[in-house]
Amino acid sequence: MNLSQIVNQYSDKYLPHLSADIVIFGYKNDALHCLLLQFGDRWFLPGGHIEKNEDVGNAAERIVEARTSLQRKFLHFFNVFGNGERTFSEDFKRIFQAKGLEIDQNHPMLDRYVTLGYIALVEMDSVTPKVGSFDDDIAWHPVNDLPAMVGDHEQIIRNAQEYLVGLNEYSPVGHHLLPEYFTMPQLHKLNQTITGRDLDRSRFQKKMLALDIYKRHDEITTSVRDGIRIFIPMMEKIPSNADKAIKKVISRRKTTKVLAEAPWSPTLTPEAQHSLINSLLELASSAPYHYKSAERYKRGDLTSTLPFRAYTLNANNCRILADRLHEVQPPAGKIMNMLWAAEAMIVISWLPDVFGEQPEVREMEPVPFTGNLRNMEHIAAASAAIQNILLGATAAGHPSYWSSGGTLRQKEARTLLGIPMDEIFLGCLFVFPEDALERGVDVKLGKLRTEGKELSSWSKSIEL
Q1: Partners of 232 in beta bridges
Q2: C-beta separation of 223 from 205 below 8 A
Q3: List of residues 6+ apart from 246 with CB closer than 8 A
Q4: CA of 327: how far to CAs of 331, 413, 427, in Å?
């Protein structure tokens, strides 16, 4: 469909003011690349409108296939971009003028757009970029050397790049950028490129092989290192093995209390900590819930209907909190030691339904709470969110510990953290460095990890 047809059929064919933009990542010469379209002197992300009766995911797949000729690829939704002033009216006008076309000044295409951002991961050599009917060019560009781009498209790419770091941490997906067969050193280099940091080669290989999503291939490649020819086994992806990988993560998850004797230096950059936290919160938000939280809990930016809230601290803020807890009663105890070790801490509260007149200022949580069905559903949803975070941390290789919070539950500490007293403090999750268990510090495993696990002791099959 050409540009003139899109304009003429816009109101009848497409959802108004909504689009999908795809950040198509490739990997070559040890660098991430992005596939971009050129109109005049500016570059755009591949994108398009969504038809009125079309699934959003299908629209994204259609756009990628139109630009890459690929029918099979990794495609993942990552964010919505909808700034109140997000419009491309001037850019559209320039394009139409360059193409010798006219567009009415009141046409809805010139109004504000909200776009759904998707990440696509492709193997660059398998892609045949296709120029559309109204682009001047289509080309790969290194993400660290982008050309002049229209509107917020560079921001979308940066957001996608940051999201990819977190996504690849808890669910390795970077291999979609590699050929069908590759070496472990190539996978290691790719992951260093994605994360922007050095990764211990031995620990990385052990982590990848433990996932059971790669296997050694019969083919052997050779390389020369320090003048010596070495033989490197080729690897390949194991298809349709996600269920096995998930079961392995669940079985590996264990409560691990890491007690540092003094503040540790973080192993992750602040950006990587942010990506890790956000990736875990994305998993938490996937928890099912049946009832919306009460309107009273919509405060400031926290307006979600989810029946729980998360309050997060990166490593630096964990250390600051540890310092300030010296002044809080009761004593922080082992909470202090875990704050010294943590790369991140996530506090989870749940939002109880309460009835009758409530105090304007609370000295304690609304306990006991009303034991109705809605509150039981709320607790179940918050519990599922917590489990998702724990599994995500395990999949990313980070030991973690779930604590009831101790002194952090008290009003003085909650005021310091900005956690309202009418929310019930479920506890906090500490995420420790990947190498925490190798540092020779005091590590305590969960006391009940092996107790009561016999299926017949807690489950019963019902026959009617």
Answers
A1: 221
A2: no
A3: none
A4: 8, 10, 21
Q: Judge contact between 197 and 191, C-beta under 8 A.
A: no
pLDDT, tens digit (0-9, with 9 covering 90-100), for 374-421: 889 999 999 999 999 999 888 888 999 999 998 898 888 899 999 999
- What is the distance of C-alpha 44 from the center of its chain? 24
Pairing of strands 442-445, 424-431: unpaired
Cβ-Cβ contacts under 8 Å for 325 (sequence gap 6 or more):
332, 335, 336, 339, 407, 413
| Nearest CA among 230, 188, 193, 192 for reference residue 209 | 188
- Whether the CA torsion 157, 159, 165, 167 is positive or negative: it is negative
DSSP 134-188: T-SEEEEEETTS---BSTTHHHHHHHHHHHHHHHHHHS--GGGGS-SEEEHHHHH
Burial class (CB in 10 A: 0-12, 13-18, 19+), 431: buried
| Residue count (the chain) | 464
Rounded-to-integer distance, Cα 45 and Cα 23, Å: 7
Residues 39-85: pLDDT tens digits? 878 899 998 888 888 888 888 898 888 888 776 678 888 889 988 77
Residue type, 450: T
